[in-house]
Design brief:
Shape: elongated
Order of helices and strands: HH
Radius of gyration: 15 Å
Helix content: 55-70%
Distance between the termini: 17 Å
Number of domains: 1
Length: 77
Amino acid sequence: MQLPTPAYGAYLGQTATVLVTLAVMQYAGLGFRAPGEFDFAFLAVAGATFPLFTYLLTVVAANSSRIPQWERLVESE
């Protein structure tokens, strides 16, 4: 089983994009209860768990022969 070294810049960029998108959706009220408000606890949990789940998917992709383009999320050796 391969455990790839994560490309931290790619993870940071993806996490920032996801958090900004969720914050805009929260502020606009799309899929959330109160428009014009931020749920900082939700954004903190999403910001902490998104890189973890992304890395776990990268490990699955690194060990699968059916997914050839997992290299963009890991550092090249």
